[in-house]
Structures are given as C-alpha cells and as structure tokens.
Design goal:
Elements (H helix, E strand, L loop, with lengths): L1 E9 L3 H9 L1 H7 L3 E3 L7 E5 L5 E10 L3 E8 L8 E9 L2 E11 L4 H23 L11
Antiparallel strand pairs: 1-7, 2-3, 3-4, 4-5, 5-6, 6-7
C-alpha cells in the first residue's frame, strides 16, 4: 500500500488543533464550509465540494488532543477504504501534526494530486489554528 505523509508545526495548543479536526466548526474553517460532523467515534462526517461531489468519513478513533482517525466510505474511488489519521503532539511552540492518508493501492496521478491538495488544506488548518481564519475550499490556493 502507498501512503501520503505530511508533518507540520502549528503555533497552537494540541487542544486547538484537535478541535479543528473534530468539530463541525473547525473542519468547516479549514477544509470545506459544507461540512457536517460530530466528534463521536462511529459517526459519519460529510464534506461537500460544490453541488456535485462529496466525501464521507467514518470516525474510527478519537483520542482527545492526540489522535483522530477516519476511514473513507464515500468519495473518489481511489479514496474509498483509505484511512486518514491526524496525530497531534505537544511542542514547545505549540503542536506538531503528523498527517497520514494510508492505504492507497498505487502511485497514480490522483495520488499525486491528493498529496498536493492535502498540503494546501493542512496549510489552511495551520492558518486557522494560528489566526482564527483558514482558507477552506474553494480558497485553499490563496
């Protein structure tokens, strides 16, 4: 299996980062405004990108201020069955986020594009945690 990995330092507490990747308000602030999510294991989070496309993630693990894990159940074919993990560690300047999107079957153009898009959205997450306003879809490339 192939995996997308990113690591970034965020000048915000682990609690703030955790809130940004678990709550509807937080996720809408950095990924897509059209978010429906609950910070509950077993719940289904829905992320819409325009009127014709959405992704759904089953929340499979929540460890407060440390880890969030999802399994993709609806989305691009290459995404379905993959696992997305946010590992959060405290750091002297805030937090370090280790991001994994695991379980890709092959290195494809979709894999490459997704890795780039995650980098842009993780930048948005960092900006949200540090300033209170992220760059969610469709503004992630600003």
């Amino acid at each position: 299996m192939k995996n997308i990995l990113h690591r970034l330092a965020i000048k915000a507490t682990p609690e703030a980062v955790y809130k940004a990747v678990t709550t509807q308000e937080g996720l809408a602030g950095w990924w897509t405004p059209e978010t429906s999510a609950k910070p509950e294991t077993g719940s289904i989070a829905r992320f819409a990108f325009g009127p014709d496309y959405f992704k759904e993630m089953k929340v499979t693990a929540l460890e407060p201020f440390k880890q969030v894990q999802w399994q993709c159940i609806t989305g691009f074919e290459e995404w379905v069955g993959t696992t997305i993990t946010f590992d959060i560690e405290p750091h002297k300047n805030g937090s370090v986020l280790f991001f994994h999107h695991d379980g890709w079957k092959a290195y494809t153009p979709g894999f490459a594009s997704c890795s780039y898009d995650w980098a842009m959205f993780l930048r948005s997450l960092s900006i949200l945690c540090e300033t209170g306003k992220g760059l969610p879809y469709p503004n992630q490339y600003q």
